[in-house]
Design brief:
Helix content: 55-70%
Structural class: mainly alpha
Number of strands: 2
Length: 367
């Protein structure tokens, strides 16, 4: 196939899904309707994800006024924010809790979108952009984890970066060097240090937000363009106007969730749920803490890595990522009942491995 023909097909594909020349935004919003059915609650998950991202941006900007991205001052600046800045501990808690809540909502939104078959034509690119946003959300979690520069964060980052290089052991020939080059590029020096912190800081506060804002804009635009997916096999008889009916409900949910988030951040310090609080700054001569673990949203990979060969998990995760991106084409003819079964199975796995992963690990290792 000629290059010009391929480019033409791609252009036609995009134009069919983004018919911007025929669009009237004001009319589109005024006429947009939201189906009302047994899974209508899932329509609020996308808005909640957006809400938590906005909270992340606002609280992140507030923290930037005091944070120092240097190995000598990073930990001290976070400690200063927590203990001496008026409202600093609250802002930091809101930032930490909303980070986890955002990732939870992204995962739940993706699963419900899959179960409702909301990736059908012409919504293929809506799905693909949503999957990429999920990957970027994980990137936020990984890069932000290092910024407090405490003993557990630095050592956990070392483990994560070393796992990238380990991939090279399973690649042939010259390809085996690529993971090492990637790890050195991300790390910036022989060991995790100032260059690593500077790069993670830049990625966390500049690169990822810019990528998310651009992709999120396209994602929201395409959702408005194509409207809400019907979500069920039969056409819903009852519908409600997106504006103002659904929008008012959506903003009400935002208000209730913000109140809950505020109360939780006020009463429950995020670090109170972990064995290694902020109090211990990173010491290059110190020992690696025992029982080192990533954030909860990486448990679905972490515990299988502890029990199964690395190459197998690496293969499964990469195949899984490709399948996620190609869902609109792989599951095109699949019934919603089958999709719901797959989504429920995935949700059960995520919950079980996250909540009971440690117990399962200890039980299997003890056999």
């Amino acid at each position: 196939m000629k290059l010009s023909t391929t480019i033409g097909l791609v252009a036609d594909f995009v134009a069919e899904r983004f018919p911007v020349t025929k669009m009237n935004f004001a009319s589109m919003v005024a006429k947009k309707e939201v189906p009302v059915h047994k899974m209508s609650w899932a329509y609020y998950l996308g808005g909640l994800t957006l809400f938590f991202f906005i909270v992340q941006v606002v609280t992140g900007l507030m923290l930037l006024f005091y944070y120092e991205p240097t190995v000598s001052d990073a930990h001290a600046s976070v400690e200063y924010i927590t203990e001496y800045v008026s409202g600093g501990a609250l802002v930091r808690n809101v930032h930490a809790w909303s980070s986890s809540a955002m990732i939870l909502c992204v995962i739940a939104h993706l699963m419900t979108t899959f179960a409702m078959k909301a990736f059908e034509k012409p919504r293929e690119l809506v799905w693909v952009s949503g999957v990429i946003l999920l990957f970027l959300a994980f990137g936020f979690g990984f890069t932000g984890y290092l910024l407090p520069w405490n003993q557990i964060a630095v050592n956990a980052t070392k483990v994560g970066l070393q796992s990238i290089e380990e991939v090279g052991n399973y690649l042939p020939g010259a390809l085996s060097e690529l993971p090492r080059i990637l790890r050195e590029t991300i790390q910036g020096e022989a060991s995790v240090g100032q260059a690593t912190l500077s790069r993670f800081y830049a990625i966390h506060v500049v690169v990822l937000p810019l990528m998310v804002m651009g992709l999120l804009g396209a994602h929201l635009f395409s959702v408005q363009l194509h409207g809400m997916s019907k979500g069920v096999d039969r056409e819903s008889r009852k519908k409600e106007k997106f504006f103002p009916t659904f929008m008012v409900k959506d903003l009400t949910v935002w208000g209730v969730v913000f109140l809950v988030l505020f109360v939780v951040a006020l009463c429950l310090p995020f670090e109170s749920f972990f064995a290694y609080p902020l109090a211990e700054p990173y010491n290059p001569l110190g020992s690696t803490p025992e029982g080192i673990k990533p954030e909860w949203y990486f448990f679905f990979v972490y515990y299988p890595l502890e029990l199964l060969p690395f190459w197998l998990i690496f293969l499964v995760m990469n195949v899984g990522a490709v399948v996620l991106l190609l869902v609109p084409w792989i599951f095109r003819g699949t019934s919603r009942k089958t999709l719901r079964t797959i989504a429920i199975a995935a949700a059960v796995y995520m919950v079980v491995i996250t909540v009971f992963g440690q117990s399962i690990y200890e039980m299997l290792k003890g056999q």
